[in-house]
Amino acid sequence: MDSDILIETVARFFSLLRERQIEYVLVGGIALLQYVEGRNTEDIDLIMAVSALERLPELHVKTRDADFARGKFSDLKVDVLLTSNPLFDEVRKRYTAMQRFVEQDIPCATVEGLILLKLYALPSLYRQANFTRVGLYENDVATLLHAHNPAIEPLLAELSLYLSDSDMTQVKQIASEIRQRISRFEERT
Asked: Range(s) for CATH 3.30.460.40 in the chain?
């Protein structure tokens, strides 16, 4: 999709959400752009309740499971993280800030919220052998940690409420490796 058309479609989508008074939080690549440069994306990722999907017939849902829905609004791909997942709901409640985007104030996941979501997804992406997304998500976490330096230990403690012990061990290892990468980078600059 042409970038001008993409921006226009996103603006129309956010206007529709506002008109219908649908509660949502922007997450994913576009949310990441509120905090760091250089992340390309051609879709929009939101946290929303299942009931919100029912109030948006213009969002043509193609697939849906317990935690996710994927659909299209016009030519815009929309991925929805459903609040039926306790972590997604917690990010919606506690890790959200208003950000200016497409000339509107949009509820957007905070740096900490984005890190929680990315780290939460990584064990599943490793099991799926989705190397491309693993690389993107690990880089997203590294970029956010480097640019904003949030405390990682409280985020890991929060994640431990939502992940199995084995997944948590993997996430702690990933976080440690990312911190080592950041340290090596900072030593050279």
From this structure: 3-109
